[in-house]
Design goal:
This protein is an alpha+beta fold. The protein has helices at about 15-25, 40-45, 75-80, 80-90, 110-120, 170-180, 230-240, 260-265, 275-280, 285-295, 305-315, 375-385, and strands at about 5-10, 30-35, 55, 65, 95, 100-105, 125, 130-135, 140-145, 150-155, 185-190, 195, 205-215, 215-225, 230, 250, 320, 325, 335-340, 355-360, 365-370. The protein binds flavin-adenine dinucleotide.
Length: about 400
């Protein structure tokens, strides 16, 4: 039976909220988790292509964007990747490392979901439940929902961001923060494909390993040409740093020096055509496209002028695009922005102005790069906020 009085009410049963419940229950707290959808952890279920990339072996604050880049340091110290992986081992949740230190569930995201639900099953859960109001009176939070009134000493808000609207997302965290007089940074889509005015549709579906950069920020990963512009992990990563008007520079052959390669070939007795040489590094389609864009005929390498070699070198290593926008919340993996970290204790995620009120996960102005960093922040902030309930009883 659902009680009316709890030590802790958690609003939002995603990665951060369920982790907060799990953590608070370690101290036998009475915990109620409320979600407006029919099931918990729905983003985790589809994350990482169904295999949930839940953390990364290369973990540091450098992989996070926030108005306060130092904010996350304390959380990363308190909640360590190695400890969590040991916990996964103890509970037979199988995982494996993919490139760039990314840790995925070996079989399915369901494995980690089952672990989280199993460990949090001492909490009461209310699904398909709307929050009608949330108030604090005489140190007690009063939560009015579509299924009744509930009280608690603490409230953790873990309702995430607003990307992937078909999952029933809401602005609840930001609106509630404002209601309690807290500053928020507007949400914007991040980890999102970029739109080009004149997309390279002839290459749509083609992926290639690249170095993408905006100013000093760069990433090495696969870039995918699409009918609308650019996608793939390299694009998603750099998109979080992109603002309207920014130019993205792409090195299409980041581990080679095409000028050196051509100059060397020029001295060879072998008469090779430029397209044949390019095919050592690119697909035929991409080689055709580069020659077309640089207006260079498929001639013998020895016949290329210095100017043409420079053209090829510039195109391949310093290809630039000026996106006209991004693909919006429908296709953004996460949101940048959220509750201003200045309003929160970096050690507990409790708001400084309203004791007992916490914000965690994507609702907070901490956005991770692609590679397991967002679920990790959700887990870390949830675990820490849940753990902080030790001395609080109704
Ligand atoms: C397609 C996709 C793939 C992804 N893959 C990865 C990945 O592999 N690795 C990674 O690190 N990150 C990934 N992410 C990002 C990651 O899933 C999120 O950053 C993370 O789940 C955020 O956790 P959260 O608990 O803050 O919010 P969420 O997981 O979004 O949970 C919020 C919960 O709050 C509930 N809620 C919302 N509004 C209300 C309301 N008004 N009342 C009550 N309940 C409410 C929602 O129903 C939901 O259950 C991916 C995201 C997407 C969209």
């Amino acid at each position: 039976m659902i009680d009316k009085r709890y030590d802790l009410i958690i609003i939002g049963a995603g990665a951060s909220g369920i982790m907060a419940a799990l953590s608070a229950l370690k101290d036998s707290k009475r915990v109620l988790v409320i979600d407006n959808q029919e099931a918990p952890l729905r983003k985790v279920k589809i994350s990482g292509g169904g295999r949930c990339n839940f953390t990364n072996l290369d973990m540091s604050a450098d992989h996070y964007i926030s108005e306060n880049p130092h904010f996350i340091k304390s959380a990363l110290k308190q909640f360590r990747v190695s400890d969590f992986l040991e916990e996964m081992d103890r509970n037979n949740v199988q995982y494996h490392e993919r490139k760039l230190g990314q840790i995925f569930c070996k079989h399915s995201a369901t494995d980690i979901i089952n672990y989280l639900l199993d460990q949090s099953n001492g909490a009461d859960f209310l699904f398909n439940t709307d929050i009608r109001s949330l108030q604090k009176n005489s140190n007690i939070f009063e939560v009015e929902t579509s299924k009744g009134y509930f009280n608690s000493t603490s409230v953790i808000i873990s309702t995430g961001g607003i990307s992937f609207p078909n999952l029933g997302v809401s602005n609840f965290a930001v609106e509630t923060a404002k209601k309690f007089g807290l500053n928020v940074i507007d949400f914007t889509p991040a980890l999102v494909p970029l739109r080009l005015e004149n997309p390279y549709t002839e290459l749509a579906g083609t992926a290639l390993p690249c170095r993408v950069s905006i100013g000093k920020r760069f990433f090495y990963d696969d870039l995918l040409f699409t009918h609308k512009g650019l996608s793939g992990p390299a694009t998603l990563k750099i998109s979080s740093y992109w603002s309207k008007g920014d130019t993205v520079t792409i090195d299409l052959l980041p581990n080679e020096n095409i000028k050196q390669i051509i100059d060397q070939e020029k001295t060879s007795k072998l008469k090779q055509r430029i397209h044949a040489l390019m095919k050592n590094y690119f697909t035929s389609k991409v080689a055709n496209w580069i020659l077309y864009e640089t207006d260079i005929d498929n001639k013998n390498i020895q016949e290329l002028s210095n100017h043409q070699v420079d053209l090829l070198n510039n195109f391949i290593h310093f290809f630039t695009v000026k996106p006209v926008g991004n693909m919006g919340y429908d296709m953004a993996e996460i949101c940048k922005g959220g509750v201003d970290t200045k309003e929160l204790s970096s050690k507990t995620f409790e708001t400084i102005k309203v004791s007992g009120l916490y914000f965690i996960g994507e609702a907070v102005d901490v956005a991770g790069n692609l590679g397991g960093y967002n679920i990790w922040f959700a887990f870390a902030s949830g675990f820490i906020a849940g753990k902080c309930q030790t001395d609080k009883k109704l």
